[in-house]
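Handout, page 2. Input:
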Amino acid sequence: MEQRRDNQVEVGTPPRLPRRTTNRRDRAAILVEPDPKSIGHSLTIAGVPETASILRQRLASLSALPPQPTELLQSLVSELFNNSITHSRSGEEGGEVVVTLHRLPGRVQVRITDQGPRTDSAPSPYVRAPDPHRVGGLGLRMVSQQASRWGTLHENGRTTVWFELDRPSSHTTRAAEADDSTAAALSADPPGPSAPTTDRRDHGAADSDGPR
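Output:
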């Protein structure tokens, strides 16, 4: 049976399933004034690519966000999890990543904690300048541009990257739904014989739902 190293697992061996994190420091939110009551949902997962889809599904159900922010949360978590298993000891054999989600007032916070850099000389996570010739390196840039706020934390030899997404207000959600309804109504063909159904096909125009 073939043996693979680093962030890969032995062929035919399923990755370890996520387990509940019990360390209270890992489960605590990152706050200016720490709140001992703020204990989040935390998972300790194997540092292998196969667990990324499980992680995305778990966080989607825990976040209680609307569909669009949920998709963004999943994308940001995937990027940071990938970074962890690529650049830290979490991606080595037996490595693990701790992922914690907090539903805080008006926002959701996610923190991804790895087991620290593989070498002592490795730099802290930072946003790299764009380089079209470099493969990868876009994870933190994506987080910095799309998260409401984010940061890094170094503690006990481990590295944590965290981010927050503001929860849409009910007013914002209703306004967005109203805009969608208005756009759909304006794009619809008016009733009656003045709008022949063959016009679009005759002019070769493809139907479109507009930008998503």
